[in-house]
Design a protein that fits this description.
Blueprint: H1 4-9, H2 11-19, H3 26-65, H4 69-106, E1 125-130, H5 143-149, E2 153-154, H6 155-161, E3 168-169, H7 172-190, E4 194-196, E5 201-202, H8 204-210, E6 222-223, E7 228-230, H9 235-240, E8 246-247, E9 253-263, E10 282-292, H10 297-314, E11 319-323, E12 335-343, E13 348-359, H11 360-366, E14 369-372, E15 375-378, E16 380-388, H12 389-399, E17 406-407, H13 410-416, E18 420-421
Parallel strand pairs: 4-9, 8-14
Antiparallel strand pairs: 1-11, 2-3, 5-7, 6-7, 9-10, 10-16, 11-12, 12-13, 13-16, 14-15, 17-18
The protein binds one RNA strand through residues 40, 43-44, 46-48, 50-51, 53-54, 56-62, 64-65, 72-73, 75-80, 82-83, 246, 248, 376.
Length: 422
RNA sequence: GGAGAGUUGGCAGAGUGGUCGAUUGCGGCAGUCUUGAAAACUGUUGAACCGAGAGGUUCCGGGGGUUCGAAUCCCUCACUCUCCGCCA
């Protein structure tokens, strides 16, 4: 959520920024400013009336105490007019406040200056590439065939027990999955992130805190009896640790990581994009989350990018980094880098990580601030996948396949306990 | 699931209708003392909003009500804890 003070002060810059998302927010901004103006004027009146009421009540109290019943009763009569006024103003103030809030919720974050205007994936900027795309002397198979051939993943069994998008991993497939989780966590911990095992369900307030609510409830699984949401990412429980928190000073850098399963309804998706592991309703992910002083955000983002690069290097996967264009960025993000691994078998790039800075957008909703010379200032939040498992598993299988089996990257062998799947 | 107790400032914990944004203790900060530290003592220490400022308003789990006046009384919802039951 954008800060109202910022909208008051930097209207033009915000409009220009949102234009990069192909959004013309001028009407919304005007409505916000008008509602804000109305709210402030009603609020000022309400405050005045309330002040008078308080004064009167005090006077009446003193009169009663000193036994001046008649005077007190006379004054009491005067309060009824003020009371009516106060009630009316309260209704107004609340109404303005609500519509202001609703309007503010509709505005996405303002893109960083590095972000270019664009509509879709093609407009994203390719800023980095590494690794070599493997050449096979045979016809490379997609991961769903490999998974079947080596009995690593059973999609049909998942359909039987739950439904599409809920696969079983079995045998070496399960082992590989567990190895990856352990590997990612160990790397994150070595990079200074504190590990958390979080709840896999969150309450409504947490959904609002990170921006899944309102509006995107359709993307989350919902447990009606208890009013809980299954987490779509560890970002939600980890970031919400700092909901309603004021850090004591500006000297902080909070680095958290956590492995969780992630649950996403993914309503409306179909076709080859969802084949195999490409898109699931339940998948595993190690997430890194940071809470930073605004001055440190750029550096933190760089560190996170380096961290993810390192993971992919160690997994010996060919990848590229895209800086997302305005139209392709998430609602809350100010700047997002996607990591994509090339799969020579599917002959396409698979998104395996998304690293973003949100600046104050999440912090404003979370009310996450720090004290700075008696002032309270909003913190910055960042997060990134490091990494999401299914597409990593897919690209490991596809890129490291040989005619006789699948080679496990060296860095992973200590975790899997085997070096080849045959 | 049954029964009961509770929700107050960073924490602990008073406060049952009037000057209470709230006693006190701990913690934090500043100071006195000290070569320094500890101890002791003194002072200070919540947040949000409106306002150029002076100042004002709001917040004692959320919402509503009674009253001139509510942390305090009533209604309602949520959450937490304890005991019993069930259970990994």
């Amino acid at each position: 959520m954008l800060e109202i003070q910022r909208i008051r002060q930097e209207k033009e810059a915000i409009l220009a920024g949102l234009a990069k998302r192909n959004i013309d927010a001028s009407q919304t901004i005007e409505a916000i400013l008008e509602t804000d103006q109305n709210w402030r004027s009603a609020k000022t009146q309400l405050d005045q009336v309330a002040a008078e009421m308080n004064q009167l009540a005090r006077t009446i109290g003193e009169l009663f105490k000193s036994g001046q019943q008649a005077e007190a009763t006379a004054l009491k009569e005067k309060t009824s007019v003020l009371k009516t006024q106060e009630a009316e103003l309260k209704v107004q103030v609340n109404a303005f406040e609500e519509s202001l809030q609703a309007l503010l919720y509709t505005l996405p974050n303002v893109p960083n200056e590095l972000v270019v205007q664009g509509r879709e994936a093609e407009d994203n900027q390719n800023i980095f590439e590494a690794g070599t795309i493997p050449q096979f002397g045979f016809e490379a198979q997609p991961h769903w065939d490999l998974a079947k051939k080596y009995k690593l993943i059973d999609f049909e069994l998942g359909v039987k027990v739950t439904g599409a998008g809920f696969p079983f991993y079995r045998g070496k497939g399960a082992r590989l999955q567990r190895a990856l989780i352990q590997f990612f966590l160990d790397e994150a911990i070595a990079a200074g992130y504190e590990e958390f095992i979080s709840p896999h369900m969150v309450n409504e307030a947490s959904g609002y805190g990170t921006g899944q609510l309102p509006d995107k409830e359709g993307q989350m699984y919902y447990v009606k009896e208890d009013d809980f949401y299954l987490i779509p990412t560890a970002e939600v429980p980890l970031t919400n640790i700092y909901r309603d928190v004021i850090l004591p000073d500006g000297n902080f850098s909070i680095k958290m990581c956590g492995y969780t399963p992630c649950f996403r309804r993914e309503a409306g998706s179909y076709g080859k994009d969802v084949r195999g592991l490409n898109r699931l309703h339940q998948f595993d992910k190690v997430e890194i989350v940071r809470v930073e002083h605004p001055d440190n955000t750029a550096k933190a983002l760089d560190e996170m990018l380096e961290h993810v690069k390192n993971l992919l290097d160690k997994l010996e996967l060919p990848y590229r980094i895209l800086r997302l264009c305005g139209g392709d960025m998430g609602f809350a993000s100010a700047l997002t880098y996607d990591f994509e691994v090339y799969s020579a078998a599917q002959e396409k790039w698979l998104e395996v990580s998304s690293v973003s800075r949100f600046d104050t957008f999440q912090a404003n909703r979370l009310k996450l601030r720090f004290k700075d010379d008696k002032k309270t200032t909003l913190c910055h939040t960042l997060n990134g996948s490091a990494l999401a498992l299914p597409r990593i598993l897919a690209s490991l299988l596809e890129n490291h396949q040989t005619a006789n089996g699948i080679q496990i990257p060296k860095a992973l062998q200590a975790y899997t306990g085997f070096s080849v799947i045959e």
